[in-house]
Amino acid sequence: MSKVPEPVVLPGKIVHFASGATPPHTVQGGCYAAIVTRVWQNPGPGSDRPVNPGATARMNEVDLCVLDPAESKCQFMSGIPQSETLKFTLEGAGTWHWPENTPGIIGLSD
């Protein structure tokens, strides 16, 4: 049986945003569906791709449109880091992760 490839984050992908309602994230605590609007990656020297000024060595930092059905709104957020390990902890507030049962994520059955 072949190994399922790890998912790739791209604009338009659906991910989850873990909110603890901590500034500047005003969405109430919980896990919300979000649409990736931009992927920030720190490119190598000579690249013409934009650099996220808030990122140092972090990869997979994204801009999101977080969907909040309780408030009937969406909230745009920038520079959100990924955390698959802290997603259900207080330290994971303000991060994004792949939806549960996404094939190819470590720790999930393939």
Briefly summarize what is shown.
The protein has 110 residues and is mainly beta. Helices cover 0% and strands 33% of the residues.
Task: Describe how the helices and strands are arranged.
Layout: E1 14-19, E2 30-40, E3 61-68, E4 73-80, E5 95-97
Antiparallel strand pairs: 1-2, 1-5, 2-3, 3-4
Task: Describe the protein's architecture and organization.
There is one protein chain. With 110 residues, the protein is mainly β. The chain has one domain (14-97). 0% of the residues lie in helices and 33% in strands. The chain has a 5-stranded antiparallel beta sheet, with no helix packed on it.
Unreliable stretches: 54-58
What best-fitting shape do the alpha-carbon axes yield?
A: globular
Q: Oligomeric state of the chains?
A: single chain
Number of helices: 0
Mean pLDDT: 74
Radius of gyration: 15 Å
Total domain modules: 1
Helix content: under 10%
How many β-strand runs? 5
Q: What portion of residues belong to β-strands? A: 25-35%
State the major sheet.
Answer: 5 strands, antiparallel
The largest sheet has its strands arranged as 4-3-2-1-5
Beginning-to-end CA distance, first to last residue: 10 Å
Given the helix and strand composition, which structural class is it?
mainly beta
Q: What letter string, H or E per element, gives the SSE order?
A: EEEEE
Features:
110 residues, mainly beta, 33% strand, globular
